[in-house]
Amino acid sequence: MAFDVVTAKQGKPHVTADQQALMQAGMLGKGRYALDALNNLACTMTDSNTLTVDTGGLMVDGRWVVNEAQTSFAIANGSQAQFRKDLAVLEITVDPSTGVTSLEEKVLQGATAATEAAAADPTYEPGDLYTGLTAVVPIARITLNGLTPTCKALLPSVADLKTISEQTKKLGDSVSPSSFLNSESLKITMIGKLAIVHANWLPCTVSGGGWKSIYTLPDKLKPENEIYENALASTSASDFYPTIMRIGNDGVIQVNAMGKSLHNIYFSAVYVVA
Predict the structure, then answer these.
(1) Domains of the chain by range and CATH?
(2) What is the SS3 string spanning 69-86?
(3) Closest CA to 32 of 21, 42, 43, 44
(4) CA 227 to CA 248: how far, in whole Å?
(5) Mean pLDDT of the chain
(6) For 22-75, what is each residue's pLDDT tens digit?
(7) CA 79 – CA 94 distance, rounded (Å)
(8) Measured in whole angstroms, how far is the alpha carbon of residue 147 from the centre of its chain?
(9) Angle at the Cα of 247 from the Cα atoms of 241 and 250, rounded to 5 degrees
(10) What global pTM score does this model have?
């Protein structure tokens, strides 16, 4: 049967562990995460040979794993003037004939090195419970500096991922383009604090020399610094002249008529708003 209503009464046992895992992976993601529960699998070195992982839960390829009591991992002695990195891992195995799942706690020991940078994590195959029968999940790294060990939890937290997601959304909102002015002759688009101004033959009936004011921007669109851009201006006779425009800190757009009688101006400018 291709489609199956899993969460429904069928008059027989029919919900499988794989179906439950698929649902959980769909809600929380297909990765491997520590859940925001109990003591969040916090790790401490109880002594130089014992890593203790506190209570908590995690998701592994959609499978919910819980640690209901502090669990200890035995760490081998370090070596004087040497560095080593070990991994405390959970190895999950599914029996291919029965489908029964088992879990074993292990320590993978790395090779010693003369510096911490040269000391590498031991290699392992992470596996995949979606298509395979095993998964190896590092939950903590133990770094030995000589005889002194320290530990660090490795699993990303669902709580952290939620925070990142919220921050990413805020960032996306802050850089999403929004139009503040959108007329036939003047368009201003904001992307974050960046303003993009495009004047498409903006009317500017000015003449003579020096700077002439042609438009004043709203306060929220004033530039952080005064800007200058090249522009193209037209006269009543439809002649075209290159000229210069500027936008001051006060938001006033000005054009230098350069002794001509100008009627329209064309320019583009990009700046950071104050």
Answers:
(1) 17-162 (2.60.520.10), 178-272 (2.60.40.2460)
(2) CCEEEECCCCCCCCEEEE
(3) 21
(4) 7
(5) 87
(6) 888 887 777 888 988 899 999 999 999 999 999 999 999 999 999 999 999 999
(7) 37
(8) 37
(9) 150
(10) 0.60
pLDDT of 133:
96
- The one-letter amino acid code at 40 reads N
Number of neighbouring beta carbons within 10 Å of residue 227: 17
The Cα 128–Cα 61 span in angstroms is: 7
- Tell me the three state secondary structure of residue 97: coil
Q: Name the DSSP class of 20.
A: H
In 3D, which of 64, 67, 85, 66 has the Cα closest to residue 75?
A: 85
> Looking at residue 214, what DSSP letter applies?
E
3-state secondary structure of 6: coil
**Whether residue 97 has pLDDT greater than 90:** yes
- The DSSP 8-state label assigned to residue 147 in this structure reads T
